[in-house]
Amino acid sequence: MIQGCVLILFKQIMEKVKSSKRSSKNQQNQFPFLSILAQGVSTLAFSEKAIFSPLLKRWHPLAAGVAVATLHSCYGNVLKQFVSGIGDLTPDILQVLRAADKLEKDLVQIAVENSVDSEDGGKSIIREMPPYEAESVISNLVKSWITTRLDRLKEWVDRNLQQEVWDPRTNKENFAPSAVEVLRIVDEALEAFFLLPISMHAVLLPDLTTGIDRCILHYISKAKSGCGSQSTFVPSMPVLTRCSTRSKFVGVFKRKEKFQIAQGRKSQVGTTNSNGSLGISQLCCRINTLQHFRIELDVLAKRATSHVRNSESAHMDNIADGMGKAFELSTTACVEGIKQLCEITAYKIVFHDLSHVLWDGLYVGEVSSSRIEPFLQELEQYLEVISLTVHYRVRTRVITEVMKASFDGLLLVLLAGGPPRAFHLQDYETIADDFKSLCDLFWSNGDGLPADIIQKFSTTVNAILPLFHTDTDSLIEQFQYMTLETYGSSAKSKLPLPPTTGQWNPTEPNTLLRVLCYRSDETAAKFLKKTYNLPKKL
Highest taxon of the source (predicted)? Predict the structure, then answer.
């Protein structure tokens, strides 16, 4: 009897709501049908509890419980049909689901209060009220909304990257326009998310930020791709040889011969290090772009944390504290990407763009007539471009990397410069003076790099240069001693040829051997011939 009466009343409420909706269809800001129905059902349930249940108890001890269970089922059937047709997340859908959630809580409360004195505490009634799971439906809809937004962001990232030319002149900050567009879409997605009328922002925010993190990580990866690496630009080391005691390398290179050797070397480098398509200004633009992302991601993370702290979610402080890790992958990738691009920029300048004055020109033939000045003049122009283009927060890092690459380049010329080079004891002063000029360029009378940074990274060069002032007999003794120390008693019968590590050190056998290979005197040549049968340079 109770269930039948409730069914009739539920149908009456539905008809009343439909009639009301028809009469007000031309009015704006209409509430969704199921939201109004939920309010009507809730009002009916409380009225039934207050007016009819006390009378009906004489026929059924849990009259109110039976009534609300019936109402719960009736509304649930209508809601189920509604949910099955849901596509995209809209404000109306959220309003209906929140109204359904509130109604269910009201009905469960009435059932529990009415069943306090029952034997099972109302469990049998509650079992007849399978939950609407409105919160779960909302959660799934929001997750679907997030997926759609992230797919759109991924499309924007790819589209903007395809059009990106990495020209620093496109805006006054010298970073890529694509970064502006991508960050705008990210900001809009975050703002739209926090405008959703839900109570689970903090719970679902990691889904959004993790997806954004991956999209930006994809952008960063593309920004670094195609730029090469250090090894892309460094020339391969020629085989070890000894100086010709017949020519002694003094004055044997005329200008024409030196030019031909330089051209030959340039051609060789061009074939082994083919990546010369990216200009320095484009690399600087990429560095600036990653720096811009790094700054803006920090701003976005703080803004998201502020939104979470102001949200309705429970335990919001604990969740907000964890937001410090938002965009963690992208932020880390920005730092690493900037480091890589700084190194690539430096090595491209020194070993590719300036190879004609460093690798192909410095100390070729007579040291006194092929000094470092041409390299310094052209290098200074690149440093000016960097100073005018690169973001001030990473400018020092780029210039420091250029300095380190220049020092590496000088050592490579001295220790692995190939047949065009040979050094006499008297060349030491010239080389040392050239190195001082190189350091002075980066110091720039106090306006450039700090003196302690220059000193820190010049340690290896300063340690190796004295070897070029050490007499040949002493060098041979040092080499033999360090080789024996390295290889032990097995090296006594025959000195092994130490492998090239590229880690230059005045006590490392291969470094000492290379100084001997480029020492232009008879003693060094005879030792190398007797010990290793190394071929002559020319």
Answer: Eukaryota
- Nearest 10 degrees: Cα torsion 513, 519, 524, 530: 60
Tokens of 75: 């509304």
Kindly report the number of other CB atoms within 10 A of residue 437's CB atom.
14
Q: Which of 233-237, 239-243, 448-452 reaches the highest mean pLDDT?
A: 448-452
Gap between the Cα atoms of 95 and 171, Å rounded: 44
Report the alpha-carbon distance of residue 466 to residue 255 in Å, rounded. 29
Largest CA distance in the chain: 127
Report the phi/psi class of residue 426: left, alpha or beta, with left for phi > 0 and alpha for psi in -120 to 50.
alpha
Q: What is the pLDDT of residue 107?
A: 86
CA distances from 377 to 351, 384, 398 (A): 15, 11, 18
pTM: 0.82
Q: Which residue has the tokens 């192909």?
A: 360
For residue 480, what are the contacts with CB-CB under 8 A and spacing of at least 6?
Answer: 495
Q: Secondary structure of 323-362 in the HEC alphabet?
A: HHHCCHHHHHHHHHHHHHHHHHHHHHHHHHHCCCCCCCCC
Residue 242 bridge partners (DSSP): 536
pLDDT digits (tens, 9 = 90+) for 85-105: 887 788 888 889 989 999 999
